[in-house]
Amino acid sequence: MAFADTIKTDVVVVGGTASGVAAALQCARSKVKTILVEPGPWLGGEMTSGAMCIMEGNRNLPSGIWGEFRKQVREFYKKTPGFDTTYNAVLRFEPYTGAAILKKMTDTVKNLTLKLKTPWTTVKKNGTGWELTITENGRTNTIRAQVLIDATETGDVATKAGVQFISGFDSRQDTGEQLAPEKTIPEIQDITWCAVLKDYGAAADKTIAKPEGYNASRYDCLKGKDLLRMVKGGKLPNDKYLIKWSECANSYTSSTDLLSLQKREQYYKDMRLRTLGLIYYLQTTGGLKNFGLSDEFGTPDQLPSIPYMREYRRAKGQIRMVLDDILTPYSRSSKLYRTSIAVGDASPGQHFVGGNGPKTSYPPFLAYSIPLGAVVVKDFDNLLVTEKSISVSHLVNASTFYPSVQMVLGQGAGTVAAYLAFFKTTTANLRVRTIQGELLDFKGCLMPFSDVPQTAAAFRAIQQVGATGLLKGIPHVNGKTAAVLFKPDTVVYTEEIKPVLTELYSHAFLWFNSEKPGAQFTVGNMVSLISNTTLSDPKPLRMALEKQWQTTYKFAQPFDTQRPITRLEFAVLANKYLNPFARNVDLTGRLIN
Fold it and tell me: The whole model's pTM is what?
């Protein structure tokens, strides 16, 4: 007779997705006991088991665990012919290699227990913590944890816990987004059942058996197209190719009904057959018989075990991130960028095969910060969500769902969970700056400044000052996207820093009235401001700064009180002497007195 065990831990993460792995790694590195539960055999979710293994998003923001994964992939393939090792090249990898690298990352961390091929059955509240039942070795065990992270692609754990979800297009009235439709539209983006093909050489015939229900006319939109060129557009290492096409190929209309637990299995079965039909079409009508399915997934049909899902349902969080938090973060009454736990820059995708969803004319899409409150479920103690379940609008989800963005977000969510477990507290008592400080300790990123690499000596100072809004990011538009730059060598303007300084320090108003700095803030103004704020004698302070200017701080320009101060110099000195990051903020980014 098998007896059930009760396993106690600090944090349980359900879902070995890109975000789930990053969350579990971060919790364990922050020295709290963590269990990661994944029903399937692989880590990585859609990035590996779903074969979404070409990563364009966040390649200019390689922070934390995402940067570590990226580096290990590049290291693995660096001697592979044709592999692009440019600093910010699009990341391409074979799915099983990605999964193996993630497994290796989890194997090297103390405090982390990994449970692969482990289905879960029930979840329930236990005081301020949670109980999750799992099935392993033919018996049902219970995991008791202080904090639960639902990192599944479908939000099934949070659903079973009773969380309320919304899906589809939000209305303009609901979110205040000018680009949102007048009324809600219950349409969600397509799923894609990817495939990975391998070129077995011109003489090979890898044609699969004709799939059940095959209908060649289903793929009519491919007639007259250069199919070989299309295949080669999804190039992966080792003569493999990712097939992730839209129109009539292998992207399929989806809905919350089709993805429901009652219908999901049949829907998945039908979509797999349609993707097999596409492969058969390419091999027969398309004449590409030497391109056969890669056998790396260990599935009977050699297709990925799960689909690539862009959207499903979004939980009601403590905070909802909307499009204006990306496009105009500094001019809103809520300052959500101040509460950032992740950064993203993926272009928003819009995939509606049937033309059911309206096309949104996004302006150039800025790199952005994701607020802490978006992963915290409202009215549920110590329950966090990632993936498609985070609290964002439909228009924002079109970017945040990308696996590379999710890996960055997972690390942020892991930092939140570790804070809750370490301080034995609940999501009602989150201290934003403490959590962000821990994230920075582990090479995370708060602000999406792509021109200040993590190797820069002033990286942390710039991140911390940036997170107060004292120095704002500057958009740099490039076609449909816009990088956000810090521009460390440009000068500081008084009108930019004055409103935030007077908000942060009550005496700053009097200082501005007496000092009356000009349009460009000078080194002398900075010395005076530091003296006033720290109540230190200006002359010794000036002498000390002059001595340390190029030795300690290694500033490029010489010390000169008359010249305008650069943004880099201001950030470093403000961070050290004024410490604006020490001022606590709530989940909306408002200062807490």
Answer: 0.96
